[in-house]
């Protein structure tokens, strides 16, 4: 690589194909003293930004004596869309302080974007003041960015004011207002301004308008408005109806539970991309129509369109939720055969196998993963916890720490859950302290719930009570419920009544908690209190949700509820249950005395 003139530097940069080459060119230009001209610096920084190497570009920028407006704009723009938008604001502050420069309309558009990303309302208002003073308030591109900033930060009044005071409103400006209201959940306001927009002859809604409105209907599950928007789209012959819009409509009907309409829309789309297929597949996953999911996956594959990691992850997650091991295993083989694999697919498979009861298969997938993130480790840890394999969970946690992956709050939740299920009180206390004191992770209410459960199962009810009183967050129904359940198991009426009283005070008492309280009184032979609890439940119209279970047989998931007689083979099922009950009684089993308002 020979560099003799500025022109040779530019030629090499323009023909550069990767980041390593670009760094070598930069190094050579420094050695050749050719990296100090403004044009070369600008080109080098722009090239690093185009390779998304922001940190390196920032280093070059920081060493530049007098960056021009183009460099400032390039840096502010890049960081405004990055994970560290505060750097964009910092660069803007540097520009104003060092150069006493006001920048141009593009500068402020990207600064507003950065302020919106950080919800930096006061800074954004300060920058708005600068814009007014220097006379940029008539620039449409800048004003739409300002409007969007206020909307993102929930300042709908200021956003509306910007909109009302601006004269020539194009479709981008209208879209900023409509999608802004939509994102804030103000669907009716968004729809009202959409109708206002239709009255303006110079402006017509475009794909962006419709996408914003449909997204709002999906978020609020407003099917009525969604149908109206769909109707308008069908009538407007000038509106470009691309795959993006069609996919959004399918998603709308899927989320609102209209799978039949979604399927009809799907069938008439001539050219379907992966997003369209994913929308419908996810819909069938959500309602548990697993046979439809298999058929769609096969159709998708036959149409020469390869399912992506999102497709596979969604289907596997649905299998985990439904306990559909056979389908999940089939999808696993399908993904391997078609090389659809990444860290998200692997993690979803771990979760699926663990929830379907195959923890060894989950661990096998984990071991085969070349790349693992904290979610992957958490999935196996949670699996071990739910299977009561505390020792395996503790051993894996130790491996995780040695690997250099930093545990998060979910990691500790899984470990504490494992300790609680296995009665490892001292281990649980140690891990709780490790989380708070070493990793500086503030305990959430779920962590306290695990600790109360751990102490309660071990009969340390007074210690659990003290812990609740010392909690840094407000106890919720899960915490009180764990203590109440432990009191019922160990027959401690005094603390149980205290827990129930706290639940009544915080409106955290649900049907299950009433049943546990009644059982506590029943075990203490205080039947007057059992009767009082029953009457309280009847008076408040509270009834316990019927128990539900699912089982997969031959790729079909069967769902059962208490006293269910809807299944076609219910008579055979009850005959088997009766036989099992007889054998249990013969073996000496005596059921716990319990309140059962279901019969």
Short structural description:
By secondary structure, the chain is an all-alpha fold. It contains 33 helices and 2 strands.
Q: Determine the number of helices (DSSP H or I, runs of at least 4 residues).
A: 33
* Molecular shape: globular
Termini Cα gap: 86 Å
Rounded mean pLDDT is 83
* Rg, Å, rounded: 31 Å
- Portion of residues in beta strands equals under 5%
> Residue ranges: pLDDT <50 for 5 or more in a row?
593-599
Task: Report the helical percentage.
Answer: over 70%
**Count of beta strands:** 2
Query: Biggest β-sheet: count, sense, barrel?
Result: 2 strands, antiparallel
User: Can you list the strand order of the major beta sheet?
Assistant: 1-2
Q: How does the helix and strand content classify structurally?
A: mainly alpha
